[in-house]
Write a structure and sequence with these properties.
2 domains; six-stranded mixed β-barrel; alpha+beta; 402 residues; single chain; 10 strands
Length: 402
């Protein structure tokens, strides 16, 4: 019997039990759509974070107090950073030494950070207040959504001016214009001079931070040790030279364990690695649904073999070989899994498109190919046992089956 004829017979057998065929495909549909949907969320998040980190600046060095290991950032990294900041040995003169003594560093911004409560009328927001010098906007690429930056003169006299992160401004003022308004920051009145555009993620995000002059922050938090020093290399291809030079300058006063020099590339690599594992884990969890769907196909096909025992016996009596019977049942199984896979791809793609309006989401070709390939494999692997059982039936006993 030609293969095309076998396929027609297999399709006709599935159409005879449309409801059962659809329910059998349901496990594969859910599995494929789940894989595509979860992987698209993970990949979209990874791309979003990568773009945000790259937007902060490719030639930026971040000098943190203490010895930090990026490999532990996903577990105890937050505690390590907080502990290092509390025991910082970085001083303003270290930033000044980097500025005056480095050939490959063109700008340096020392920073002091502390937690602060901001109040405006009845609204109250907890935020991280970061004290920086006036050139921070050029070094850490922090564009404004509204208003102006504070000046060197503001920094020198410790003026009480503040630039709000986008989320802080929204929570305090809603849709009102905050520029020129007075807010209470740690029990002192500050004038809002600007609002930052939201850039970066995690520790580099500006949405929930406020920026004040460095000298103001030192007085406000009674802190002379730097929480971080930001340095801008002359160009991205001079980064290695800038790092070596910064290391040498800092070690003239500090011990190697007193500071860590981070680059955006290192942070990006660590974050991408963590999110890559997360995406793979999400896809693996969703793939379990495909396994369940495969077991469902096998169970239904075994039931189908039992129900069609007399049909199989009759076909064998009329000359159908075991290979033809095996091929037919295997094709039925593959049609169920492939059909479920195609429907799952459509649902997963549509779901990802809908999610992209609320959260970062992007369908990746590899997830579609992987999910579809696995669904085809599921049909073949889990269809073999029922097909072999049908092929091995004795035609005489099959005809006698009640």
């Amino acid at each position: 019997m030609p293969l095309t004829q076998i396929i027609k017979v297999a399709i006709q057998a599935l159409r005879t039990n449309k409801t059962r065929s659809l329910l059998t495909m349901l496990g594969v549909i859910i599995g494929v759509s789940s894989v595509i949907l979860l992987v698209s969320v993970g990949s979209g998040l990874q791309k979003y974070i990568t773009d945000q980190l790259e937007g902060v600046g490719s030639n930026l060095l971040i000098i943190m107090p203490g010895k930090l290991d990026l490999k532990t950032m996903g577990s105890s990294g937050g505690k390590d950073i907080a502990s290092s900041m509390l025991n910082s040995k970085l001083e303003l003169k270290d930033a000044q030494n980097l500025q005056s003594g480095s050939e490959y560093i063109k700008a340096v911004v020392p920073g002091v950070a502390g937690q602060a409560i901001l109040k405006y009328n009845e609204q109250k927001v907890s935020s991280e207040a970061v004290g920086l010098t006036a050139n921070f906007s050029d070094v850490v690429n922090s564009p404004l959504a509204a208003g102006d930056y504070f000046t060197d003169g503001d920094d020198k006299i410790g003026k009480k001016v503040v630039i709000l992160g986008s989320d802080v401004a929204k929570n305090l003022f809603g849709f009102d214009d905050p520029i020129g308004q007075k807010v209470v920051l740690s029990d002192e009145r500050f004038t809002v001079v600007g609002v930052l555009k939201n850039k970066g993620v995690g520790s580099t995000s500006t949405s929930d931070q406020v920026v004040i002059p460095l000298t103001t922050a030192e007085r406000l938090f009674n802190q002379t040790k730097m929480s971080a020093i930001y340095a801008q290399a002359t160009s991205s291809d001079k980064m290695d030279l800038a790092i070596s030079e910064a290391q040498m300058i800092l070690e003239n006063r500090l011990q190697p364990d007193d500071f860590t020099i981070l680059t955006q590339k290192e942070i990006l690599s660590t974050v991408s690695s963590i999110l890559g594992v997360l995406t793979a884990a999400l896809g693996g969890i969703a793939a379990i649904s495909l396994l369940v769907g495969g077991i469902g196909i096998m169970n239904i096909m075994l039931v189908s073999v039992t129900e069609r025992t007399r049909e199989i016996g009759l076909r064998k009596a009329l000359g159908a070989t075991p290979n033809i019977i095996l091929t037919q049942f295997l094709i039925e199984s593959v049609i169920l899994s492939v059909g479920g896979g195609l429907i799952g791809i459509l649902i997963g793609g549509a779901g990802s498109l809908a999610l992209s309006k609320a959260i970062p989401s992007a369908v990746t070709p590899w997830s579609v190919l992987l999910a579809f390939g696995v669904s085809v494999g599921v049909g073949i692997v889990f269809g073999v046992m029922p097909a072999r059982r049908a092929a091995k039936l004795n035609p005489i006993e099959a005809l006698r089956y009640e």
